[in-house]
Amino acid sequence: MNLFPIAADGQTNYKMVAKTIYGLENLCMAELLKLGAENPAVHNRAVSFEGNVGVMYKANLLLRTALRVLVQFAEFEVNNEDELYEKVKSIEWENLITVDDTIAIDTVLNTEIFNHSQYISQKTKDAICDRFREICDDKRPSVDLDNPTLRLHLHIAKNKCVIALDSSGDSLHKRGYREKTNLAPINEVLAAGLVQLSEWDMRSTFIDPMCGSATILIEAAMLAANIPAGYFRENFGFMNWKQFLPYNQELWEKIHGNAIERISTENIALYGIELSPHVARKGKENVKRSKTEDMIRIRCADFLESDAPATVGNKPILLMNPPYGERMVKDDIWELYHKVGDTFKKKYAGYECWIISSNLEALKNVGLSTSKRITVYNGQLECRFFRYSIYQGTKKWKGEE
Predict the structure, then answer these.
(1) Element (H, E) at 194
(2) Dihedral through CA 250, CA 256, CA 260, CA 262, nearest 10?
(3) What mean pLDDT do residues 308-321 have?
(4) Number of Cβ within a 10 Å radius of residue 330
(5) Integer distance in angstroms from the first to the last C-alpha of the chain?
(6) Residue 54: alpha-carbon gap to chain centroid
(7) 238-285: per-residue pLDDT in tens?
(8) Within 10 A of 87 (CB to CB), how many other CB atoms are there?
(9) Which among 334, 335, 369 has a CA at the least distance from the CA of 353?
(10) DSSP-based three-state secondary structure for 343
(11) What DSSP designation does 239 have?
(12) For 97, phi and psi rounded to 5 degrees?
């Protein structure tokens, strides 16, 4: 069994993993490098890296494209459930957690040895609790699946098991600014990733013409203004750690303060259009809650009937997340996408227009050639993120298949 170092000296490097969304792995790695992470490597929906406690704190506060940051502390081979139980039980858990902690265990399986993740989580819990009972006068940590003080992650690939502690707690997409949402709000991490994939220069005009609860606009504004992704969160998982890398409040406050000093909201203008008055109100409330109201303007209107805003800068961006058609008649959704393409041509010359959608048939009805195609996931839906470069004059668009 390989147990990784757990010295809380602020200098020791730890093996960590940033979980992310499919299609955003390279963005996440680039963000990690800026934070001082070492030896990053891209995996499916994840980036492994090394860093000290400070890097772990920065990753939770500043990463825009990560869902969780996991700190690995054990790795071993396993071939059956009895071996898993014995090896988990042999770990000195009393040096990592206390009997007063509450725990939850998440398991991801990529193996033929086991086929039921919940059962493996239960087996792991049993091993931990049985060890505590033997050495702590029958006392043990309790389980809290909803709001544990410590969340453990097991990842078993083939016959290799890696155990990690979740330093994030709640998923990092829960920024803390969004309380009002429409029926299908886009994940904040995905929204931040789409903005970065669009290669917006953070000063040219940016518009979301079907802005819903304004998540894309808020993430774009936070990126441009250097507002940390975790600025509005009051709690992270590592703040509950007592034994394993005990929470260093002084270090956290220094990192948090330095990040706040870099915020600048000057010369940033973003525009949103939303057809529904009710949803537009929700979007405006979220903008106010995110403290980006000086940068974002939302109006209730029909994008198809509205004029484009006056452009600023050399690279204006339109980025939209239209309905995918789950609750619409096929002919209606196809007609909507056709009208979107016509609106691009007639009113958005000079823009790079981006659409994310899981409806490939509807996307064909946009009627324009794409200049870039990217595959991403919105929840469980495999989506395409298409760029349409709309040119001035008679050359309406240019395709680069």
Answers:
(1) helix 188-197
(2) 100
(3) 93
(4) 11
(5) 49
(6) 20
(7) 999 988 899 999 999 999 999 999 999 888 889 999 999 999 999 999
(8) 17
(9) 369
(10) helix
(11) G
(12) -135, 170
Percent of the chain with pLDDT over 90: 84
**Residues 68-99 pLDDT 10s:** 999 999 999 999 999 999 999 999 999 888 99
- pLDDT tens digits, 23-35: 999 999 999 999 9
Please provide the DSSP assignment of 251-284 as one string: HHHHHHHHHHHT---TT--EEEEES-HHHHHHHH
Instruction: Give the distance, in angstroms, between the CA of residue 176 and the centroid of all CA atoms in the same chain.
Output: 13
Residue 182 has pLDDT above 60, yes or no: no
Other C-beta atoms closer than 10 Å to the C-beta of 125 total 18
**Token code pair at residue 350:** 């000079």
The pLDDT of residue 397 is: 38
pLDDT in tens, 331-364: 799 999 999 999 999 999 999 999 999 999 999 9
Neighbours of 265 (CB within 10 A): 16
Give the Cα separation of 264 and 224 in Å (integer).
8
Domains of the chain: 2-166 (3.30.2130.30), 188-228+237-389 (3.40.50.150)
CA distance 163 to 288: 40
Q: Across the chain, which distance is largest between two alpha carbons, in Å?
A: 82
Torsion of CA 242, 248, 249, 255, to 10 degrees: -140
- Cβ neighbour number for residue 37 with a 10 Å cutoff: 24
Which amino acid is it at 318?
Answer: L
Q: Are strands 270-274 and 206-208 parallel, antiparallel or unpaired?
A: parallel
Q: Mind giving me the DSSP string for 324-335?
A: -STTS-HHHHHH
Nearest to 122 by CA among 78, 152, 79: 152
Structure tokens belonging to residue 200: 């917006």
